[in-house]
Amino acid sequence: MKVEQIAVFLENRKGRLCKFAQVLYDANINIKGMYIADTTDYGILRVITNDNEKAVKVLKENGFNTTVTELIGFKVSDKPGEMHKVLKLLNDHNVDISYLYSYSEIGSNQAAILIKVEDNEFVSKLLIDNKVEPFIEK
């Protein structure tokens, strides 16, 4: 249920995101999911790769500031109401979600949802106890 994510701080300037992708490409690392939030001066790129350990190493070697964060991943069926069921469960247990994004494959009938919460152990147990299907990173 736990998924490691790399956060990369990017200056908000032309070509920086392309350089990030080039560094991973040159190291033969596949980007499996990503999300970017920006401000005027910088962006925070959240990314999951097929080899996060290697990705962090090559990114740092190329001047990128990175941190690793542990997220909770679970699956929901691709039909109305499935996401609401899980969000309601979390809300009913006063779980505050810092951020969320999806991670899915084209053609799949499920989406993996990744969430950042304060207490990973509590949320993992809550989801498992309520038979929410865990997302296991491959």
Describe the structure in your own words:
30% of the residues lie in helices and 39% in strands. It has 138 residues and is an alpha+beta fold. The protein has 2 domains: 2-68, VC0802-like, CATH 3.30.2130.10; 70-129, ACT domain (Alpha-Beta Plaits, 2-Layer Sandwich). Strands 2-3-1-4-6-5 form a 6-stranded antiparallel beta sheet. A hairpin with a 6-residue loop joins strand 5 and strand 6 (110-117). The model has no long low-confidence stretch (mean pLDDT 91).
List the main descriptive attributes of the protein structure presented here.
VC0802-like; 138 residues; alpha+beta; 30% helix; single chain
Strand order of the largest sheet: 2-3-1-4-6-5
Structural class: alpha+beta
Overall CATH architecture of the largest domain: 2-Layer Sandwich
Tell me the total number of β-strands: 6
List the helices and strands and how they pair.
Elements: E1 2-11, H1 16-26, E2 31-38, E3 42-49, H2 52-61, E4 65-77, H3 82-92, E5 97-103, E6 110-117, H4 120-129
